Each structure stands twice: as C-alpha cells, then as structure tokens.
Amino acid sequence: MAHPHTHPRHSVAVVLQCLSAYARSAKPARLAALVPPLPRPVVEVLSALADAVLMLVLAVYYVLEAAVFELLPRRLTSKSVDGQVVLVTGAAGGLGRHLAARFARLGATIVAWDVNDDGVAETVRQVRAAGGLARGYVVDLADRQAVYRTAALVKREVGPVDILVNNAGVAFGRTFMHLTDRQIETTYNVNILAHYWTAKAFLPEMMRANRGHIVTVSSVTGLMGCYRCTDYSASKFATVGFHESLFTELKVQGYDGIHTTLVCPYFIDTGMFAGVKPRLMPMLEPARAADDIVDAVRTNQVTVTLPGSIRYLLPLKSLFPSKLSWALMYRMMQGPQAMMGMKPRL
Ligand SMILES: NC(=O)c1ccc[n+]([C@@H]2O[C@H](COP(=O)([O-])OP(=O)(O)OC[C@H]3O[C@@H](n4cnc5c(N)ncnc54)[C@H](O)[C@@H]3O)[C@@H](O)[C@H]2O)c1
C-alpha cells in the first residue's frame, strides 16, 4: 500500500519482498507444472535452489543498499518528524530529556511521560523555552491501569501517537542475593512489562493508519549479561525478544508502514550507572546518544548498538568457547570490576 510517509528505501525493499513472496508461493506447484515428469524430491531440490539464488540476490541487494544509505547525506535518507506526535517515556531527565529536546527541535510535538513530576515539568519547560511543543504527564509505568488511563487522556488531549519511545528504565545495581523481591518486580514492571501496556495502548491507531514507529530502548546488557544485573540485564534481554517478535508480526501481517527500532546502548553518562569506570571506552555523552537514536529512528533502522562498533564485539560471545569469552570479559574488558564501582541511586 502506497503511503505518503513510506520511506523510499522501504518501498524498494517491499517490492523485493513481494517478488520473494511470489517466488515462494509459486513452489512447488508451479515448478511441478513446468516439469511434470520430475520426481517430487527433485522438484523440492530445484525449489530449494531457486530459494538459495533468490537469497543470494537479496543478500547482495541489502548489503549494497546498506552501504549506499550509509554514504548518502542523512537529509536525503531521513524521514521527517515535523508535526508528528512523539511520546517519550522516562522523559524527566537523562536520555529521555535529550530525546524529547531533539525530536522537538525537528518539529515534533512531545508527549513526556515520567513518574517524576518535577522532572517532567522541567522537560516540558525546556522544550517550550526552545520554541517547541510539549505536554507532560505524570504516570507510574509500573501501574498498568495508570498507563492505560494516561494513554486515553493523551489521545483525547493531543491525539494519536506517531512515534512511541519506550525509554524509561530502572537499574538497582545489586547482586542477586541483595535484590529484594520488590526491586526485581519493579525492574520487570518498568523495563519490560510497561512496553506491553504502552504498545497495546498506542498500536491500534498505528495499525489503522498503517503508519507509526515503536522504539525500544534496551541496552548492551540486553545482549550479554553482566555483574550486578540479574534483574536489569534479564529485563533488557526481554525487550530484545519483544522488539524482534513485534517486528516479525508486523511484517508478516503486512504493516509495512509501522517501523520498530531496537536501541542497545553501552554505558551513557546519565547517572544511572554512576561510579562505573568502564575500561573498554568512556561512557557515551547523553546528548550524542540521543542524536544517534533520533537519526536511527528517522532512517527506520531496525537494530542499533551505541556506539556502532560494539556490534563487532558481540558475536565473539557465540563464536568463542565460554571460558575464552569469560577471560575476555574479566581480564581484558574488566566488565565485572567496573560494575563493582557502581553507586546505586535507588
Ligand atoms: N545510562 C546508561 O548507561 C544506559 C545504558 C544502556 C541503556 N540505558 C537505558 O536507557 C534508558 C534511559 O536511561 P537513563 O540513562 O536516561 O536513566 P535515567 O535514570 O536518567 O532515566 C530513566 C527515567 O525513567 C523514569 N522512570 C523510572 N521508573 C519509572 C516509572 N515507574 N514510571 C515512569 N517513569 C519511570 C525515571 O524517573 C527517569 O526519568 C533506560 O531504559 C536505560 O535502561 C541506559
């Protein structure tokens, strides 16, 4: 379905996907009709070969597409968010406030959600002072009914949400036996369950319009576990599964105008991991991280690690024997030792 907001890069991909779907639907009945005397196993092998050739063509196309879009200036490859409603959870400070500011500068209307009333008011004040549009809502994301109530209020007061940024998160930074049951529940409530409630609240309008974007702020710890993170890291792994499964469902159901972006940042200097001194590289600047996330959203990227170079390290976890991975983590990167310095805020 052609849509004014469909990204040009996406349209070409959709055509290729349609060709691929056609080729798949043509086998084996169509192949069998062309070569009726061939035994069925041969037909199966031929259709598998046809799929393999198609995959090769798609692989070349997608790699070239990624390379070309990497080289083109961002303004040519980015979609506009001007006039769109962008809801940012956890917008009272840290990364969320920077995301709100950046989207607002690009002309979006910001809906800022947070449990911290002073912080959310300050974010709204800053956006408005810079000439942007923003409205704040105090909501505890751990309270499902409060999320649904506030979502209904937003729809009445502002309208449907175009881009949902599930950014709010908590990190208690305690080792397993020091975590209370309540802390573990809070981590899961805020870091993953809230994503279900917000997506359930705002996805129906996106589906009706076949247009929208859901951004899942996960973490590098959502791809590899780390010290003091049995609750946090596990909840972030869950966000990866949530994003990948939702992506698959939307694709299969034909919602080609709804995009999903998973963001997996390394440490960001917001105070969430205060006291941690990572050996690998310094913490990311929150403003810079927000810029990179907004760029990723505007170019409809599906998965982003911050910094991008981290994605070359992650596969080592599966490629190396476990003992070597551990030695790399403990001796070289000194990840656990760095986390030992964390001064929990909560
Ligand atoms: N800081 C890092 O090093 C880092 C690294 C990777 C990923 N992340 C993720 O980035 C996101 C933003 O984190 P940040 O660094 O800006 O942290 P932050 O603590 O500065 O911001 C988190 C925000 O979430 C809000 N929040 C917490 N519980 C809430 C609740 N129940 N209801 C509503 N709002 C609630 C907080 O009030 C806060 O404003 C989080 O999802 C975090 O897990 C952070």
From TrEMBL:
Keywords: Lipid metabolism, Membrane, NADP, Oxidoreductase, Transmembrane, Transmembrane helix. Its main location: membrane. GO terms for molecular function: all-trans-retinol dehydrogenase (NADP+) activity. It is found in: Membrane. SUPFAM superfamilies: NAD(P)-binding Rossmann-fold domains (SSF51735). InterPro entries: NAD(P)-bd_dom_sf, SDR_fam. It is a multi-pass membrane protein. GO terms for cellular component: lipid droplet; membrane. It comes from the Eukaryota. Catalyzes the reduction of all-trans-retinal to all-trans-retinol in the presence of NADPH. Belongs to the short-chain dehydrogenases/reductases (SDR) family. This is Short-chain dehydrogenase/reductase 3. It comes from Thrips palmi (Melon thrips). The gene is LOC117647436.
